[in-house]
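Customer escalation, tier 2.

The customer says the design service returned an amino acid string that "doesn't look like it belongs to this structure." They asked us to rerun it and document both sides in this ticket. The original C-alpha cells are below, unchanged.
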C-alpha cells in the first residue's frame, strides 16, 4: 500500500511521508516503529524489494483496514476472505 500511495499524486511521494502521515500507521503513533525489527522482517523485506514476493495486491489499492472507509461511490472498496477491506482509486 505504501508503494501504491507513493505513486498516487493524492498522497505524499516519499516512504517517510506516507508512513508518518498523521493517523495512518499505529507503529508511528506508538513509537514501536523505532524498535529493532525481528530478523525475519529483514528477510521478508529484502525478498519483497527484489521482486521475489507477489502480494497479489492490485496497483490501485491505497487503503487497507478491517472496516469500511468512505462510500463505494467516492472510495470504492472490496473485502477479502481475511475480513480486510481494500480501498482503491
Amino acid at each position: 500500500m505504501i508503494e501504491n500511495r507513493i505513486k498516487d499524486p493524492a498522497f505524499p511521494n516519499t516512504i517517510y511521508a506516507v508512513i508518518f502521515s498523521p493517523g495512518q500507521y499505529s507503529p508511528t503513533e506508538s513509537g514501536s516503529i523505532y524498535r529493532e525489527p525481528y530478523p525475519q522482517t529483514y528477510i521478508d523485506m529484502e525478498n519483497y524489494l527484489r521482486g521475489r514476493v507477489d502480494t497479489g495486491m492490485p496497483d490501485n489499492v491505497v487503503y487497507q483496514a478491517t472496516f469500511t472507509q468512505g462510500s463505494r461511490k467516492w472510495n470504492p472498496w472490496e473485502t477479502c476472505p481475511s475480513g480486510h477491506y481494500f480501498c482503491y482509486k
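Tier 2 assessment: The sequence is consistent with the input. DSSP finds four helices and three strands in the chain. The helical segments are 2-7, 15-19, 26-30, 39-49. Sent an explanation to the customer and offered a walkthrough call.
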